[in-house]
């Protein structure tokens, strides 16, 4: 047999192996130890499975907000005015007490305190509290009769009292009253309206119905 015939026979013997598939790996016959050190065959297939979307993991409680990034109560911003300026928080003013000449407290808007009255027969002493409001320049006190009067009502007679400085109780003596007659005593404060440069009156204290002595 010449060399060309030998090559044709060898090719014929290898053709079934090529068309039938991959030849067995030598590592299969060599055992487990040989499989660990053998080089992978160039004809091996890599199978890739289709993946799926993984759910998004939420951050741990410690990583959500660190203590340093939280806003402290002292650094919070007050609500802003329409112009952009921050509004300051209201300041708590302690209640003024009699005998404290330096105390200054603004009379609350719309608040009417109770005026105390000690009635006589034709006079009465009215007592109320002045909080030291510097906007109050005077107080006016009047006795309003609760007796039924038909026709035109009598004009009120006002007694004016200057408040003075500091916070203290004020008193006014009202005269010209009728005996055995019920009265309600009202106290008005005359305040300065700085925006317009004038004054206005507002009721700040009022008594219950009090009957003068017979």
From TrEMBL:
Pfam families: fn3 (PF00041)
Key word Ion transport present: no
Source taxon at top rank: Bacteria
Domain Fibronectin type-III, first and last residues per copy: 108-197
Single GO MF annotation: hydrolase activity, acting on glycosyl bonds
Signal sequence annotation: 1-30
BP terms from Gene Ontology: polysaccharide catabolic process
Comp. bias regions, Low complexity: 57-96
Disordered: annotated segments: 50-107
InterPro entries named among the record's database cross-references: FN3_dom, FN3_sf, Ig-like_fold
Sorted UniProt keywords: Carbohydrate metabolism, Glycosidase, Hydrolase, Polysaccharide degradation, Signal
Protein name: Fibronectin type-III domain-containing protein
Organism of origin: Actinoplanes digitatis
């Amino acid at each position: 047999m010449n060399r060309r015939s030998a090559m044709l026979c060898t090719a014929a013997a290898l053709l079934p192996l090529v068309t039938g598939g991959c030849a067995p790996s030598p590592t299969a016959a060599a055992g487990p130890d040989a499989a660990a050190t053998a080089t992978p065959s160039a004809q091996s297939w890599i199978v890739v499975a289709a993946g799926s979307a993984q759910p998004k993991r939420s951050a741990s409680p410690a990583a959500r907000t660190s203590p340093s990034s939280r806003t402290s109560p002292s650094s919070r911003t007050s609500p802003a005015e329409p112009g952009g300026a921050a509004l300051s928080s209201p300041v708590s003013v302690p209640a003024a007490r009699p005998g404290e000449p330096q105390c200054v407290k603004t009379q609350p808007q719309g608040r009417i305190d109770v005026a105390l009255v000690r009635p006589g027969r034709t006079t009465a002493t009215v007592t109320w509290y002045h909080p030291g409001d510097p906007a109050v320049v005077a107080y006016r006190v009047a006795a309003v009769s609760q007796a039924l009067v038909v026709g035109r009502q009598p004009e009120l007679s006002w007694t004016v009292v200057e408040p003075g400085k500091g916070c203290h109780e004020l008193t006014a003596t009202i005269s010209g009253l009728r005996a055995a007659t019920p009265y309600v005593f009202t106290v008005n404060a005359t305040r300065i309206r700085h925006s317009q440069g004038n004054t206005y009156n507002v009721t700040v204290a009022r008594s219950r119905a009090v009957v003068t002595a017979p």
